[in-house]
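Methods — Computational structure assignment.
A single polypeptide chain was analysed. Its primary sequence is given first, followed by the predicted tertiary structure written as structure tokens.
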Amino acid sequence: MVAVVAVVAIALAAIVAVVALGSDDAPAPIATDEIVQAIDDLEALVADARAADEAEGNSLSAGLETCPLGDLDDVWNLASDDLEIAGSGSRPVAQALRFLDDEDEPTSFQCFGGGDEQSARIAGVLVGRASDGSHRRYLRRTLSFADVEFGEEFDHRGGTVLPYCVDGGDSGAFSFCAADWVTDDVQFGVFVSVGENDLGLVEDLLVASLDHLAEQLLANAGEVELLDE
């Protein structure tokens, strides 16, 4: 009987050791201090352009020469083969966009391909400061013209992943599914013109590309220039 108890104790100890090892292998939280600074540098870059455009009634967007998140095809290469990416291989559009005419709203730095006259499909990435309060409420404000359906959010790398799908309906806006990684300070996102059945694939792409997007932002933010229109 003593021998049996000893064997059980050893087995339990082994299980605990395996669980502990697994927790050590969990991805570490993403440090956001340098990311916040990079975003603030981009904000400063577009501030003058935004002020100049205010006289013309357009203070919400500014074109960028290059994408601060790097080559989009490097992101798409991290996607599942089952996820169809629109506009891959084409020169992306890069822009700084504030969705609402409110200085308290964060600027979203977006890069996307597709969406030309031949296709109503897009795929892209974004980064920006996080909004104050609930990210769900922020999305409902900025996408008030469309129907937004949220998936199940979960904690990841020190932030929260929130997947969702947007139906542009009769508004003329693009329909797409997206996933955002949000902390108190920053947000990263990916968005692809696919249906709700592929939302999990978009979510997987965000998780797979987070480190890459953060690295590219830190490498490129200081080199981004405004588009000379």
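Note: Confidence is low (pLDDT under 50) at residues 1-23.
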